[in-house]
From TrEMBL:
The gene is nth. DNA repair enzyme that has both DNA N-glycosylase activity and AP-lyase activity. The DNA N-glycosylase activity releases various damaged pyrimidines from DNA by cleaving the N-glycosidic bond, leaving an AP (apurinic/apyrimidinic) site. The AP-lyase activity cleaves the phosphodiester bond 3' to the AP site by a beta-elimination, leaving a 3'-terminal unsaturated sugar and a product with a terminal 5'-phosphate. It comes from Alteribacillus bidgolensis. [4Fe-4S] cluster binds at C189, C196, C199, C205. This is Endonuclease III. One of its GO terms (biological process) is base-excision repair, AP site formation. Residues 39-187 form the HhH-GPD domain. Signal peptide: none annotated. Keywords: 4Fe-4S, DNA damage, DNA repair, DNA-binding, Endonuclease, Glycosidase, Hydrolase, Iron, Iron-sulfur, Lyase, Metal-binding, Nuclease. It comes from the Bacteria. It catalyses: 2'-deoxyribonucleotide-(2'-deoxyribose 5'-phosphate)-2'-deoxyribonucleotide-DNA = a 3'-end 2'-deoxyribonucleotide-(2,3-dehydro-2,3-deoxyribose 5'-phosphate)-DNA + a 5'-end 5'-phospho-2'-deoxyribonucleoside-DNA + H(+). SMART domains: ENDO3c (SM00478), FES (SM00525). Its cofactor is [4Fe-4S] cluster.
Length: 220
DNA sequence: AACTCGGGGCA
DNA sequence: TGCCCAGAGTT
């Protein structure tokens, strides 16, 4: 596994590669953020951003989602995937906010995770972006990149990946690290075709070196 | 631990 | 045009 200093070095390189890796979520209020992140499960932010403007004009508060019919809400989010689950979860979640939290979005990860459609990743994103709770949200990009680079172990589960990242990275860098690893994973260290041949991290990346060796062997 | 949900994106 | 992606919940 990489040491703290090696992780720092890797993050600096990634920062150079993606200077634009800043927070993509700029929702003015926690409720809209929560809905947007729940919607974004299993699809890209770009896709969600197509429906949210209209959605947030029509639905302002939890009551609006509770009062609308399941079918109508499904139609309003039809263009993203998994719309039946998501519509159901959003109605249920809104009901919980009204019944248990006076219509407000709760601030702790535990409370957030108790809501329908909110798992560990979503809870971390909302807690950190809306309420500035230090957290590292581990999505598949962050997990894959952390494992390939050797920031954590291959066998680690999501919780362990999260703990290792928090241990090896200073708290004030968590938010930035989250975005850097996402950009790096999405555009460079991709699941199917990682760009190892042009990667500035190749020297410190065991997985990358393994892949390059395999490639060499195939060619000659 | 493996499967399901369901679109859009892309080869 | 068919394979691939993404996160939460269920079994």
């Amino acid at each position: 596994m990489l040491t703290k200093t090696q992780v720092q070095e890797a993050l600096l390189h990634i920062g150079d590669m993606f200077p634009e890796a800043e927070c993509e979520l700029t929702h003015s209020n926690p409720f809209e953020l929560l809905i947007a992140v729940v919607l974004s499960a299993q699809c890209t932010d770009a896709l969600v951003n197509k429906v949210t403007p209209g959605l947030f004009e029509k639905y302002i508060k939890p009551e609006d989602y509770v009062e609308v019919s399941q079918e109508e809400l499904e139609q309003d989010i039809r263009s993203i995937g998994l719309y039946r689950n998501k519509a159901k979860n959003i109605k249920k979640l809104s009901q919980s906010l009204i019944e248990q939290y006076n219509g407000e979005v709760p601030q702790t990860r535990e409370e957030l995770m108790s809501l329908a459609g909110v798992g560990r990743k979503t809870a971390n994103v909302v807690a950190s972006v809306a309420f500035h709770t230090p957290a590292i949200a581990v999505d598949t990009h962050v997990e894959r990149v952390s494992k390939r680079l050797g920031i954590c172990r291959w066998k680690d589960n999501v919780r362990e990946v999260e703990e290792t990242l928090m241990k090896k990275i200073p708290k004030e860098q968590w938010a930035q690290t989250h975005h850097r690893l996402i950009f790096f994973g999405r555009y460079h260290c991709k699941a199917k075709s990682p760009q190892c041949h042009i990667c500035p991290l190749l020297d410190m990346c065991r997985e990358g070196q393994k892949r390059m060796k395999k490639q060499e062997a195939r060619h000659g």
